[in-house]
Amino acid sequence: MIGRARTRRKINGRTTRWVRRFRAIGSALSHWWRRSLQLRVVVSTMALSLVVILALGFALTNQLTARMLEAKLAAAVQQLDSARQTVQRELAGAGDTTSRQGRINSARSALNWQVDNEQSTGGAGLWTPVLIAADPEATQGLTTSGAVEQIPESLRDYVRQGQVSYMYSTVPASETSVVSALIMGTPTASDIPGLELYLVFPLESEARSLSLMRGTVLTGSAVLLVLLTAISLLVARQVVIPVRSASRIAARFAEGRLKERMPVRGEDDMARLAMSFNEMAESLSRQITQLEEFGNLQKRFTSDVSHELRTPLTTVRMAADVIYDSRDELDPMLERSAELMMRELDRFESLLADLLEISRHDAGVAELSAEQIDVRSCVHAALSTVQRLATDASIPLIVDIPDDPIIAEVDPRRVERVVRNLLANAIDHSEGNPVLLRMRADNDTLAVLVRDWGVGLKAGEEKLVFNRFWRSDPSRVRRSGGTGLGLAISVEDARLHNGRLDAWGERGYGSVFRLALPLTRGRRVTTSPLPLKPDPEDMDMPVIAPATEPSTKSEVEIMLDPMESSAVFTPDEVTDSRPSRDQEDAGWRAQ
User: What residues form the membrane-spanning segments (predicted)?
Assistant: First the structure.
């Protein structure tokens, strides 16, 4: 039993190795087939040529075989008629004193003499005579002369009925081989009743001729197939080489080498293709250059304006602070104007700061001050910042953060800004519905997901939402007083971490924003512990039960998952619930 098991394991191991090799070969051939136009053209030409050659060769062979057998049959009919006359003449000239067997043998000898006579063979070739006559006195009821065992019984049935018939059969050529033969039979008009004459025509020469013909056709077909393959290879190369050249030049053009052009040779279709490609490349190069110059000019203008506005804004801020501090001494209308001026100055300063941040990203001078921290502290800081905004809008915040620390090498200021922008954007578009913040991490990546059940996004807007100053509905008023640059800056902050910021939305089901960052600086995000698109069962808005008893924190707890902690911040929470820095460093989590 042990020996059988070892043998079975060896066989299975060898079979597995062979299967893997065949799969690898098949995969390589499949890859080559998909990527090589030249291979597909050559193989297709070979396959079609092979089918045509086989069809023509088969038809030609059948036609020549039929013609050869028709000629053989016509000559055999003439030879059979001549042999019948010879037999009848020999039997009529023999005396009655000779026995029946002797007379039949004498007639067969005359036929053999005709076979040996080169002038009488004609186009039928060599043949062998067989004579058969019914004889009640004989042992088997027959008087025969010749190889009677070569005559099929079915052919004798036709001849006994008085018909001249023929049949193709096989006869022994030697002790170990057989050969095809044409056997013809005819009744005779002699004084021996029921005498049958058969001539056996071996088809050895015809078989040799057909074999030679098939070999010639096969050789010619192989040579023709090779020539057609070479021709198709040459033609395919003439077509594929310019296409490959265009592909390489297009790839280099896409890499930014805008001076790449295709060589133009001749005036054929490929030359016109090269000229058209070069004209397209020249046009694209001019447009790209113009756009780059315009973009650089725009970035420089934004940067210059942002820097130039800082000095007058500082002066205006100082004057506004003086007026605002003395607002109690002013009449009510001037006091209200001072408050409005301070509010708009705050918004203007925020816009200017965002413009400066965007200009740093555009100039490529934005720096990442990464450090290993518990990223939950950044999320809690962002929650504390937007808490008053959610309270004013009466929007519950559903927080779902793990209890265990999530340590990552990130820039805390930028991560907090991204989460804050996502939360503020969700509150602006939630239509009074809850906003969910969820955080997860795996071995390589952390993800922060912010979802609202508001108006949602139209198809295609998930890409536009990160454009600068883009708004889905221009008539909508921002509760957060944003500048329109928050999501654009957030995308740049995510890219600075080698991370991703993605969006999903659907009308009537809200929108989802997911920030995915690598846990280690320098690595890239390939997967995410949180899916971007919600599952069908999670599309509906969660139901939040109201608090049954008043509390100093005014919180309502819900369970999103029995194994996970979560909390809901209701609008009644006081602003003093912001955690301290010590609480954040200790992994504080709101409950």
Answer: 37-60
Closest CA to 152 of 184, 193, 127, 111: 184
Nearest to 196 by CA among 228, 164, 229, 244: 164
pLDDT > 50? residue 586: no
* Torsion, Cα of 563, 544, 528, 376 (10° steps): -80
Single-letter residue type at 437:
L
CATH level 2 (architecture), domain 269-350: Orthogonal Bundle (1.10)
What pLDDT is stored for residue 138 in this prediction? 58
**Residue 32's closest CA among 18, 20, 22, 43?**
43
Domains 36-255 and 371-585 agree in fold: no
What percent of the chain shows pLDDT beyond 90? Answer: 17
Question: What angle (nearest 5°) sits at the alpha carbon of residue 389, between those of residues 375 and 582?
Answer: 35
Q: Domain spans of the chain?
A: 36-255, 269-350, 371-585
CB of 470 closer than 8 Å to CB of 464 = yes
The candidate with the shortest Cα–Cα distance to 488, out of 337, 362, 345, 318, is 362
Q: Give me the chain's average pLDDT, please.
A: 80
Lowest-pLDDT range of 254-258, 434-438, 518-522, 560-564 = 560-564
Pull the structure tokens for residue 191: 């004084």
Contact in structure between 145 and 131 (CB atoms under 8 Å): yes
Fold of the 371-585 domain = Heat Shock Protein 90 (3.30.565)
Compute φ and ψ for 151, nearest 5 degrees: -90, 120
CA distance 57 to 54: 5
Dig out the tokens for 237 from the structure. 């190369």
Mean pLDDT of 7-12: 73
Neighbour-count burial for 337-348, b at 16+ CB within 10 Å, e otherwise: ebeebbeebeee
- Torsion angle of C-alpha atoms 386, 388, 392, 394, degrees rounded to 10: 70
Pure H helices in 94-188: 100-116, 118-121, 153-160
Element (H, E) at 134: strand 128-134
- SS3 annotation, 483-524: CCCHHHHHHHHHHHCCCEEEEEEECCCEEEEEEEEECCCCCC
Q: Which two tokens stand for residue 244?
A: 């490959």
Contacts of 441 (CB under 8 A, 6+ apart): 402, 406, 408, 447, 519, 529
- The secondary structure of residue 460, as a DSSP letter, is T
Please say whether the structural domain 36-255 has been given the CATH code 3.30.160.60.
no
**pLDDT winner (highest mean) among 328-337, 450-459, 460-469:** 450-459
Can you give the pLDDT at residue 102? 80
- Return d(Cα 38, Cα 29) in angstroms, integer: 14
End-to-end CA distance of the chain: 65
Q: Which long-range contacts does 191-195 make (Cβ < 8 Å, 24+ apart)?
A: 191/91, 191/92, 192/91, 192/100, 192/103, 192/104, 192/133, 193/133, 193/134, 194/133, 194/134, 194/160, 195/87, 195/91, 195/104, 195/131, 195/132, 195/133
Nearest to 386 by CA among 356, 413, 416: 416
Angle at 144 between CA 179 and CA 154, to 5 degrees: 55
CA dihedral 161, 165, 169, 173 (to 10 degrees): 100
CB 317 within 8 A of CB 349: yes
